[in-house]
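Below is how a single chain appears once it has passed through the pipeline. First comes the sequence as given, then the structure the pipeline wrote out for it. We keep one example in the README because the format questions we get most often are answered faster by looking than by reading.
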Amino acid sequence: MMTASARRASVTRETAETRVSVELTIDGTGRADVTTGIGFYDHMLTAFARHGRFDLSVEAAGDLHVDAHHTMEDVALVLGQAFDEALGDRSGIVRMGDALVPLDEALVQVVVDISGRPFAATQFDFVGERIGDAPAEMVPHVIRSFATTAKLTLHVRQLAGANDHHIAEAAMKALGRALDAATAYDPRIAGAVPSTKGTLT
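Resulting structure:
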């Protein structure tokens, strides 16, 4: 069984479009040091770490002269890979978690299964095309990209909301809280993998 102190990973990805480095500790305190060049994305990732109690460092440089797409996507892919690596064989974890998070008029629900099967279903009703310096359409894309490399199943639903900033921030807080619950150790299963298949990888 992995110890809490072992659940960390460092991942770097470099392409012709971006250079991304992520350091993640699952059993952290919510410390975040995030620099992507996209202010609102930094804000979202910081909220994700703070409310998930993950320690997270992200350094990214991308082709922002084109647009934010490549940078946001690649950061999500690397973050997901770091989660996958930090979780190891997923033995002893609760596996599933959910969170319902309000932010003023917005209400977002996230349900996660650390299943080893990448899937994401998102339901958002954004009002505008941009949230600060980030395209609104990238919020669900970031979630899907993260789920792909983290190898988990995600369902994210906006239940209420009229302010795009509030909706996106509530989603990232809920994602952090749901993952915090799902990655917690369950002492009742004594390090066993919580699957009838015997594997979650």
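The mean pLDDT is 94.

See the next section for the split statistics.
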